[in-house]
Amino acid sequence: MQMEKDRGISVSASAMSFDFSGFRFNLVDTPGHSDFSEDTYRTLTAVDAAVMVIDGAKGVESQTQKLFEVCRLRDLPILTFCNKMDRESRDTFEIIDEIQEMLAIDVTPASWPIGVGRDFIGCYDMLRDRLELMDRADRNKVAESIAIEGLDDPKLAEHVPAHLLEKLLEEVEMARELLPALDPQSVLEGHMTPIWFGSAINSFGVKELMDGIGKYGPEPQPQSAEPRQVSPEEKKVAGFVFKVQANMDPKHRDRVAFVRMASGHFKRGMKLTHVRTKKPMAVSNPVLFLASDRELAEEAWAGDIIGIPNHGQLRIGDTLTEGEVLKVTGIPSFAPELLQTVRAGDPMKAKHLEKALMQFAEEGAAKVFKPSIGSGFIVGVVGQLQFEVLASRIELEYGLPVRFEASQFTSARWVSGGKAAVDKFINANKQHIAHDHDGDIVYLTRLQWDIDRVERDYPDLKLTATKEMMV
Question: Which of 78, 100, 140, 153 is surrounded by the most beta carbons within 10 Å?
């Protein structure tokens, strides 16, 4: 996205698939900024392990902690990469200590940095007993890798300056005494994380991390669904949509549904059943992603992520199977924390604005509520930055300048209960009632007191802050 290039941050999750040293990798990059945490939560339902990237100078940041909690709820194995070691960064023990303290997880070093900032020359690979040296002159040059026999090998002195070597020997000895040894089973259970050090801008340390993911990361895991779990070894194809992205290519009004394959061997042209509508769907042009490039996917297996271009039939949480009625569970939709009304700069373009908002609502980029009384829409998001992203995307993709204005409401809750109770509640609270893009009833609140009052006066109703994205 243009905005991502301008600001230098991810505002939307993106996927890429590639082969590396005998393994098939499906990487999903998620926004690190806490304002886009909902997109990240949903993406985490589609992955089997997470790579936590930490800045060598900043250490564990607040959004890292939030995302880590989500990984922990799902017992995801976590592998850690400490980046920007070629800049001034903190003491290695301090970084490891902070991860252990703040995230309550055992950390075991897979590599150890030699020098720091300007003195950083590479890493000692503690798992394979090798010296990895970085070439500062050429970013695209692969690091020189030298096999050594233990830390008393005289070869070390040939490549590492004396003052750095002395520090390395002392630190590695301390690390081996104080920190736990790598236990592959504990990594798979999510209790331990191996940490690699490097500098991504210099392409250093990334290859070792990739080797580590191949060796210690899990294979595709069973997927929780109703009425039964889906196992990756099953012969029948099943997959679910965890993200929808509109207008990925600005030249075409396309929408791509990102589908995580849960089982079976998918082939291009297959007819799959769209469980929500019970209609067959021929998947004739599925794509695989590599950054901004796409290629046709002739086949896919469990664990792969493919993109299915469509005209709005597929939504987040939809399941595709070979006929069996399965519904994937655990894809959440959160109540927004900020609500604003939206108006088009040109009042004649209200219809265009509605179309744009519905598209973003189906994509999960924002919640869009239509109040029962009055015209216009109320847009709800998790973080302030999302309003800026929405305004910029509506202008870029639809040519519609819009403005967001303060709303009298501060939060929203989904309403559920018996039909008679819900009807009685709606008639008594019309000015607070709205519908989301799925047509579900939403209660818009001004204060916490509104929620307490409803819970007191209408015990048969349930107000919820999350909604399962399952139809």
Answer: 78
Q: How confident is the model at residue 81 (pLDDT cuts 50, 70, 90)?
A: very high
Q: What is the pLDDT of residue 120?
A: 86
Give the helix, strand, coil percentages of the chain, each rounded to 5. 30, 35, 40
Q: Does domain 332-468 bear CATH number 3.30.70.3280?
A: yes
The domain made up of 225-328 has a fold known as Rossmann fold (3.40.50)
How far apart are alpha carbons 58 and 109 in whole angstroms?
19
Q: Report phi then psi at 133, rounded to 5.
A: -110, 135
Based on the number of CB atoms within 10 Å of its own CB, is 355 exposed (0-12), middle (13-18) or buried (19 or more)?
exposed
**Dihedral through CA 412, CA 413, CA 414, CA 417, nearest 10?**
-140
At 80 the pLDDT is 92
Q: pTM of the predicted model, to two decimals?
A: 0.79
Nearest residue to 308 via CA among 277, 325, 283, 328 = 283
Domain 225-328 in the same topology as domain 49-216: yes
* Rounded mean pLDDT, 215-221: 89
Q: pLDDT tens digits for 309-336?
A: 888 788 888 899 888 888 887 776 777 8
The confidence band for 471, taking pLDDT boundaries of 50, 70 and 90, is very low
- Centre a 10 Å sphere on the Cβ of residue 74 and count the other Cβ atoms it contains: 16
Adjacent-strand bridge partners of 132: 123, 145
CATH class for the region spanning 49-216: alpha beta
- Looking at 233-275, which runs of residues are DSSP E strands? 238-246, 255-263, 265-267, 271-274
Phi, then psi, of 8 in degrees rounded to 5 = 70, 25
Closest CA to 397 of 250, 256, 252: 250
Residue 425, helix vs strand vs coil: helix
